[in-house]
Design a protein that fits this description.
By secondary structure, the chain is α+β, with helices and mostly antiparallel strands. The chain folds into 2 domains: about 5-200, 4-Layer Sandwich (Deoxyribonuclease I, Chain A), CATH 3.60.10.10; about 200-270, no CATH class. It is built from 6 helices and 15 strands. The strands form 5 sheets. A 6-stranded mixed sheet has the order 4-5-6-7-11-8, with no helix packed on it. A 3-stranded antiparallel sheet has the order 1-3-2, with no helix packed on it. The protein has a two-stranded antiparallel sheet with strand order 9-10. The protein is elongated, with a radius of gyration of 25 Å. The two termini are about 45 Å apart. The model has no long low-confidence stretch (mean pLDDT about 85).
């Protein structure tokens, strides 16, 4: 899974250490520093993907995360019932649509998913607005089944209350949406879409040898006080520090099958001519 969102997460600063996942970067909605002092939308994106987090108007009150990866734009949204100060459900809804309108002003393929708290199977004025907005933006709504199933108890009886408040919009003809069961009363919305890998540059770590020289090695060696080396462990530590000085590690982005150093790539092409 390359990108996934969790909604209604109620994430505070103190929670961040336990939420980290190896191989993924964690992105939080800016409400963690704003109106709610916690992020109710969090996003995980694979660390080796070159993504760009987008700025959002009214980000301090909107639980919304948007990012670009290659020629695709991913947007995750949670529209909660707890309102920011001086906002009504209607005013907040229209601010959400205004932000989504700006995010849709792009030539990129757009995918929008999240908990809108608007039932797709129950007519309402907000649903009418949302359907008209999606039509104007050229987006298709892909959810066609209930996404939430909770048990409601009244007195001595209980019943299942089903709704479709989780939505998924896209202007791609190549995406497939699946609903998967989860430990929550919400189902997982799983969209499958292929990246154009030729447009995505992966992040790799290499050593930068461009400024390497014998003089620099001698200077770095002297600075490490080699006369203080007493065992193999000390020697290894000294050598690593010298190496980090004369050839520091850098992160570069490369296309698939592309070599990290363009000069080496050019030499390889010349070699292949003979």
């Amino acid at each position: 899974m390359s990108v996934f969102f969790i909604f209604e997460s109620e994430t505070r600063i103190r929670d961040l250490s336990i939420l980290q996942i190896d191989g993924y970067d964690l992105i939080l909605s800016q409400t963690i520093n704003g109106n709610f002092n916690k992020a109710r939308t969090v996003c995980y994106v694979k660390s080796d993907l070159p993504y760009k987090v987008l700025k959002i108007e009214n980000s301090e009150i909107l639980d919304l995360v948007a990012l670009d990866i290659g020629n695709q734009r991913f947007i995750g949204l949670y529209r909660g019932f707890k309102l920011p100060k001086n906002e009504s459900q209607t005013s907040l809804f229209h601010k959400i649509l205004a932000s989504l309108n700006k995010l849709c002003e792009t030539n990129k393929t757009i995918h929008i998913g999240g908990d809108f708290n608007i039932d797709l199977f129950r007519k309402s004025s907000l649903l009418d607005h949302l359907e008209n907005w999606a039509y104007d933006m050229g987006l298709n709504q892909l959810v066609d089944d209930f996404t939430r199933d909770r048990i409601v108890t009244k007195g001595n009886s209980s019943h299942h209350e089903k709704s479709a408040i989780d939505h998924f919009y896209s202007n791609s003809d190549n995406i497939k949406l699946h609903l998967e069961s989860s430990v929550s009363d919400h189902k997982i919305l799983l969209g499958t879409v292929k990246f154009n890998r030729s447009e995505i540059r992966s992040k790799i770590t290499i050593r930068d040898w461009r400024n390497y020289s014998k003089e620099w090695v001698m200077e770095a060696t002297t600075a490490q006080h080699p006369e203080q080396i007493s065992n193999t462990h000390d020697l290894q530590n000294k050598l690593n520090k010298i190496l980090d000085i004369v050839a520091p590690k850098v992160i570069v982005r490369v296309k698939p099958n592309q070599m990290a150093n363009p000069k080496i790539e050019a030499l390889k092409k010349r070699r292949d001519l003979f």
